[in-house]
Design goal:
Belongs to the TBCB family. The chain has 247 residues and is α+β, with helices and mostly antiparallel strands. It is built from four helices and twelve strands. It folds into two domains: 101 residues, Ubiquitin-like (UB roll), CATH 3.10.20; 119 residues, CAP Gly-rich-like domain (SH3 type barrels). The chain is elongated and about 90 Å long.
């Protein structure tokens, strides 16, 4: 086999670079270049230790930085799979020292204030605001319906919610708001007819499942709403992943 598969470790890094492939006739320069690419340690600061197996410490060769780049890997006994080359970084100012390449706690993080986030467009909060502006059919905002208008009308009767069942996933217009049906029935006399109580996936509702002090279902604030059956489409409407994109 003309190829050899090596593991590379580093004195300043916890990460092991596994199964790097080399040709047996590759030069030491090729190995040093790959180590530089993987670890950031340049060739003049690489003191290499060649071990027979990646799981033990059977040292075969030491390759100091001054060793000629032209020597083939086979000269150092790098002849079979599973061997390990450990790089000791001799640079006193190495960028990898002290965990600088791996410890994310050392990275200065950008923190946005509440006001900055609130002013941004295209965020989840901005989307929620837009959806709430579309809400026009909840009991708190619709115009009152006279009882006389309900007499003899099936628009808001039992048939208007016959396609709905508690526990079904649904999508509510306007705004294609998704959630789960949590209640079907009548509310107060001021809001006649049959209603569908929906527990939304996002804060795009008008209440928390309470109407006139009566708890019809449980939901977090602004995650609940009472809507007419004609606004509800039931079916396979899974919760949206906010990180999904159609692009």
């Amino acid at each position: 086999d003309a190829l050899v598969v090596l593991d590379v470790t580093h004195s300043n890094l916890e990460q092991r670079h596994a199964e790097l492939r080399f040709a047996k006739h590759d030069s030491l320069e090729t190995l040093r270049t790959r180590i530089h690419q993987k670890t950031g340690t340049s060739a003049q600061f690489q003191h290499l230790l060649v071990y027979d197996n990646h799981d033990d410490n059977s040292l075969l060769h030491e390759i100091p930085p001054e060793t000629s780049d032209d020597i083939k890997l086979g000269y150092f006994g790098i002849l079979h799979h599973g061997m390990r080359v450990h790089c000791v970084d001799l640079n006193p100012h190495s960028g990898s020292a002290g965990g600088a390449y791996e410890d994310v706690s050392l990275v200065e993080k950008y923190r946005m204030t509440e006001d900055e986030y609130d002013a941004r467009k295209g965020t989840l909060r901005d989307w929620g605001r837009q959806q709430r502006e579309l809400v026009v059919d909840e009991p708190d905002v619709v115009a009152p319906i006279k009882m006389s208008e309900m007499v003899g009308s099936d628009e808001y009767g039992l048939d208007s919610v016959a396609h709905c069942q508690v526990g079904q996933r649904c999508q509510v217009e306007p705004g294609q708001r998704r959630g789960e049906i949590a209640f079907i029935g009548k509310l107060s006399q001021e809001k006649p007819g049959h209603w569908v109580g929906v527990r939304f996936d996002e804060p795009v509702g008008q209440n928390n499942g309470v109407d006139n002090g009566v708890v019809f279902f449980e939901a977090m604030d602004r995650y609940g709403a009472f809507v007419r059956g004609k606004k509800v489409v039931t079916g396979d409407f899974p919760e949206r992943d906010i990180f999904d994109s159609d692009d």
